[in-house]
Here is the input.
Amino acid sequence: MLSNEERELQIELTKLQIEHEHRISKQTIFLSVLISLIVTTLSVYLPIGVMLNNLLIFLLAPTINSFLVVFAAKILIDIDQAEKRLASEIQELKKKYLW
Here is the structure.
């Protein structure tokens, strides 16, 4: 049987994991939307710009993508920081309940 402290640790770890999964799933969904927008702008605007021989449309796709890539990089950095935060929070909980 588990002691009360071990049960409390398991409950806290489960709460922490659920909170982390919610945060990461939202960021992952947003990241997938950004990646699909990047691919769409490259596959639509570049060919249209070439076919119409329009420099403005041709330059629009890389400009839009440069902004989208910055947002995608920010989300990847946030996901990495969330993973590090989770590891440190787990260590704090283990120290609190086990040591």
